[in-house]
From TrEMBL:
It comes from the Bacteria. InterPro entries: TPR-like_helical_dom_sf. This is Tetratricopeptide repeat protein. Residues 1-19 form the signal peptide.
Length: 127
């Protein structure tokens, strides 16, 4: 299963998040853990992923999601800001077939962080 969580459609609301799919990758970076609400395990999986660069925008967004869900907002903000200002971006396809730029998703994550939405947020996405 291609796996790197990003934000996708549920950034608009506090409900569940649509999956994000980029079929060319096969990296397991915390998706199953995020879906199951095992955020500590998601952080470990993402931090131990050797296949993606540390500055990969999707990796940064996933890591930020897991951290935000754990209440580690300053660290999450650093990840989201790095993804939002990255020199490279990744087009991610949401489960509903829409494509989103990783910078756009990172900016939406920052907005969610600012509004306190991560307190009730459940991530569910893939790259």
């Amino acid at each position: 299963m291609a796996i790197v969580a990003t934000l996708a459609m549920a950034l608009m609301a506090q409900g569940p998040v649509d999956a994000v799919v980029a079929p060319e990758t096969t990296y397991d970076v915390g998706f199953e853990q995020l879906v199951a609400g095992r955020d500590h395990e998601a952080v470990d999986a993402i931090e131990n992923c050797k296949e993606l660069a540390q500055d990969d925008p999707a990796r940064l967004i996933n890591h930020g999601i897991a951290l935000a869900r754990l209440g580690r907002y300053d660290e999450a903000r650093a990840d989201f800001e790095a993804a939002a200002t990255a020199s490279n971006s990744v087009e991610l396809e949401t489960a509903n077939g829409e494509f989103r730029d990783s910078r756009h998703l990172a900016r939406r994550a920052l907005a969610m962080l600012d509004s306190g939405d991560f307190a009730t947020y459940y991530a569910l996405s893939m790259r």
